[in-house]
Write a structure and sequence with these properties.
The protein is mainly alpha-helical. Helix 7 runs antiparallel to helix 10 and helix 10 runs antiparallel to helix 11. The longest helix has about 110 residues. It contains 11 helices and 2 strands. The termini are far apart. Strands 1-2 form a two-stranded antiparallel sheet.
Length: about 400
């Protein structure tokens, strides 16, 4: 029995030793495996970090390359653009130089000539001997002649400057009616009344400028634009009378409408008369002057009517009769000088370019128009001040 018990103890000890040995081996294997896994994880992390670092470096390198490429492309585009702009600028400068040379050559190609060599349709004033433009078949040549010195230079520029001046005055009037410090809300009818004067003056000056510019183009063109010039004079006379009648007979509508209708009818009749072929000929110069003086003289009737009705003092204070008288004197003086060809009649060949009768007439027309504008403005101010009392 004891022997069995002793064998059992030995067997148990042996079993226990085996179990302990196996457990130690298994534990060592687990620890080894865990250590290997940790080592592998570290290697994997190192590889991942290295790969990520390489990817970042590669991305930064590619980004730098792209940035450098774009900068280089942009630099080339700017350089090309600057080069093209410089080429275009040089081309434009060259074209401008060629144009200036062409204009200069064209302006230099024709020469002013003597009155005796002009065609019959260009002979208007025998007292102006030299400095006339020859026949210019091109409208461009006619307009380029504005910048040359000849017998029509003063005629063109006096009314061209007057045209620009009246356009400016018209704009200023409709921005600030009557005066810069007045805050007047004038009615539409008053604006239209002043518009009659402004349109008449602007049309007259514009048509005159065009006629004197292209009168040397051809006989047909000269005839057409001379009729426009004469029609413009009629428009100016009618447009000047209407505002004076409107404010002068402000409280007398029947008299106002009657006079206005008569003036308009006579103005249209004058325009119709200017279409007559002989009206434009030099032999009818005195007749032309008489027609326009007569049209302007129609205003004498309402002026006398007003003076007889209200007295001279009231006519000056309320109807600006002094401005009307100055305007009439300026128009008449210019018309008489134009018809009589003074001063060139007494100074033949001395006033060919400057200070001949037609130029003086133009200056007096512009002066008379501005005097009349001042007069009708005073009449309008008087009516508005009276209405607000």
């Amino acid at each position: 029995m004891r022997e069995y018990l002793s064998d059992a103890d030995e067997i148990l000890e042996e079993v226990l030793e085996r179990l302990v040995s196996k457990a130690e081996n298994a534990s060592a294997a687990v620890v080894h495996n865990a250590s290997e896994m940790v080592h592998r994880s570290k290697d994997a992390m190192k590889n991942g970090v290295h790969q990520a670092s390489e990817m970042v470096h590669s991305g930064v390198h590619k980004a730098n390359e792209m940035v450098h490429t774009k900068v280089h492309q942009a630099s080339e585009m700017v350089h090309n653009g600057v080069g093209k702009a410089s080429e275009m600028a040089l081309t434009k400068v060259h074209q401008a130089e060629e144009l200036a040379k062409d204009v200069y050559e064209r302006l230099r190609n024709w020469k002013a000539c003597h009155y005796e060599v002009l065609p019959d349709w260009l002979r208007d004033n025998e007292h102006l001997h030299f400095g006339h433009r020859p026949e210019l078949k091109s409208f461009a040549e006619c307009f380029r002649s504005i910048f040359r010195i000849h017998t029509e230079t003063g005629n063109i520029w006096t009314h061209l400057i007057g045209f620009v001046a009246f356009v400016v005055v018209t704009v200023v009037f409709y921005v600030r009616p009557l005066c810069a410090t007045c805050q007047l809300d004038i009615q539409l009818s008053e604006k239209l009344i002043f518009l009659c004067f402004f349109v008449g003056a602007i049309l007259c000056l514009a048509c005159s400028t065009l006629f004197h510019t292209v009168s040397c183009h051809s006989e047909f063109v000269s005839a057409v634009f001379s009729r426009l010039d004469y029609a413009g004079i009629a428009f100016l006379i009618v447009g000047s009378i209407i505002p004076w009648l409107y404010y002068g007979f402000y409280c007398q509508p029947y008299a106002r409408v009657t006079y206005m209708a008569a003036v308009v009818v006579l103005g249209l009749a004058t325009v119709g008369l200017t279409m007559w072929e002989r009206f434009n000929t030099p032999n009818y110069r005195v007749f032309r002057t008489s027609v326009f003086v007569s049209l302007g003289g129609v205003s004498v009737v309402p002026c006398l009517h007003y003076c007889m009705q209200n007295g001279l003092e009231a006519s000056v204070a309320e109807a600006s009769m002094h401005c009307t008288a100055i305007m009439a004197a300026l128009y008449l003086t210019g018309a008489l000088l134009y018809a009589a060809r003074i001063p060139e009649r007494f100074l033949p060949g001395k006033c060919d370019i400057w200070f001949h009768s037609h130029q003086i007439f133009h200056v007096l027309v512009i002066a008379a128009a501005f005097v009349h504008y001042h007069g009708i403005s005073e009449m309008a101010m008087y009516r508005y001040s009276k209405a607000h009392q």
